[in-house]
Specification:
By secondary structure, the protein is α/β, with parallel strands linked by helices. The chain has a single domain, classed as Rossmann fold (3-Layer(aba) Sandwich). 34% of the residues lie in helices and 16% in strands. Helix 3 links the parallel strand 2 and strand 3.
Length: 203
């Protein structure tokens, strides 16, 4: 199948927030973009608008909605908020730095399910469900932009392409306003990862 006939999902992480800059776990705490985050979102939107997307989805958290607003402005597409695209709930870890987490829990990477958060499998299932819905609505050659969060995107795309979520750490951290590209020949998949962590430099 030619590239022009492929369905495409562009999974964009939100721009930087003050908590990102401070290396604090955000989870589902509703933090807005920093000045740098707005610049990142504007730059990424300029590139993603060039794909001529037909649909725009986003997490309902402010940092994702604000990022999606830049894509909406350039494309004229309404951003469709979806709570399934939220970041992993980190429970008691939210708002803490790695040093603070180490002091409190004895490790910098506690099992989130044990501290009131979500397991990776729960996140993978809900995010992949939203991605499948977005993909199923596309005709051949169409593109959708989905604005979400770093861990949520990693877990969701891993589930979508059939990888074990336990292995998605091999992808590495998705940068603020970095994006991944998935393509498929059919609305119900299978989906193939073609680009990961592409970024637009800001001046």
């Amino acid at each position: 199948m030619s590239a022009e006939a492929l369905r495409r999902l562009l999974l964009l992480r939100h721009g930087e927030t003050p908590w990102n800059a401070e290396l604090r776990w955000q989870g589902q705490t509703d933090i807005e973009l920093s000045e740098t985050g707005h610049l990142q979102a504007k730059g990424a939107a300029t590139v993603l608008a060039g794909y001529e997307p037909v649909a725009l989805w986003c997490s309902d958290l402010a940092r994702a909605a604000q990022t999606a607003a830049y894509v909406a402005e350039l494309t004229g597409l309404p951003a469709r908020p979806d709570a399934r695209l939220r970041e992993t709930s980190a429970g008691e870890v939210e708002g803490l730095t790695a040093d603070e987490i180490l002091v409190r829990f004895g490790t910098t990477r506690p099992e989130l399910g044990a501290v009131g958060g979500e397991s990776a499998d729960v996140v993978a299932d809900r995010v992949a469900g939203a991605l499948r819905e977005a993909g199923a609505a596309l005709a051949p050659g169409e593109t959708a932009v989905v604005v979400s969060h770093g861990t949520a995107i990693r877990h969701g795309l891993s589930r979508l392409v059939g990888w074990p979520v336990s292995a998605d750490g091999a992808l590495g951290v998705l940068a603020n306003c970095g994006w991944a590209e998935l393509v498929s020949e059919a609305p119900d998949g299978p989906w193939r990862l073609t680009t990961y962590n592409r970024q637009t430099p800001i001046s």
